[in-house]
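Much of our argument rests on the idea that a fold can be written as discrete symbols. The record that follows shows the chain in one-letter code together with its fold in token form.
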Amino acid sequence: MTDPDTPSALPTSVVRLDVPGGKEVRHRDVAANGARFHIAEMGDGPLVLLLHGFPQFWWAWRHQLVALADAGFRAVAMDLRGVGGSDRTPRGYDPANLALDITGVVRSLGEPDAALVGHDLGGYLAWTAAVMRPKLVRRLAVASMPHPRRWRSAMLRDMRQTKAGSYIWGFQRPWIPERQLVADEGALVGRLVRDWSGPRLPDDEDVAMYQRAMLIPSTAHCSVEPYRWMVRSLARPDGIQFNRRMKRPVRVPTLHLHGSLDPVMRTRSAAGSGEYVEAPYRWRLFDGLGHFPHEEDPVAFSTELINWLKDPEPDR
């Protein structure tokens, strides 16, 4: 499995980075669910596992790694299957299997459970893991992504959400998305990150990190495979079965975070996911932020997250 030929292909070592401020990050690989996963780790304490979205890798959580470690948590940001420094396998990109990757990493880290924090695709998988392996999920925090059943309904029944998520439909074409993502040194990645952000645009160097990571061979292909499954399985038995499994409620305290200016996941689509949670559920809307609230205003995001993680009564 290879991406279309590109002279700019880069090794996975480009994602083993230090966080801003010069604090030490522990980079290592762990085995889980038949694959090898790269993690970036800081701090000691209760495990908080951070799950990135598209078109990013663990680096999206650089600010939260530091904040969580300083707050007394063991903060771990993993690269999802097929991305960053993790294995690119020929198959296994359906959400049920990707969720097993996540809970497998929790076990490999020697922890009884974790607070899962997911953004975008990582949020979709965090919802899934909380349903499929509830004993391994202590708490759940999701940014910029509704519950999978809510997402499915919005994409099929809300034309404005269908239009906002048009990039997902574009991913259904064979090989064209892969070529577009790696063309011109990953320029499309930069445009997506900037276009999906609110008024607080990302730094050019941070955008360049995501562009370089996309140039690692096979990353572009693996990055779009989960979205292909989400659409192509809608009427297939495996997709119908997954949707039925997700009827089971989330039974852990849940924090749902969203930017009011998110152009690809409408607030109306995300709001209401609490109907799938039979536990304390807290909704937090960040005014003036787009699809990447954890990067656009990392202080506000980290403060909200840490206060909730430390709150013994999160339903207040």
Q: What stands out?
A: The chain has 13 helices and eight strands. The chain has one domain: 12-310. The mean pLDDT is 95.
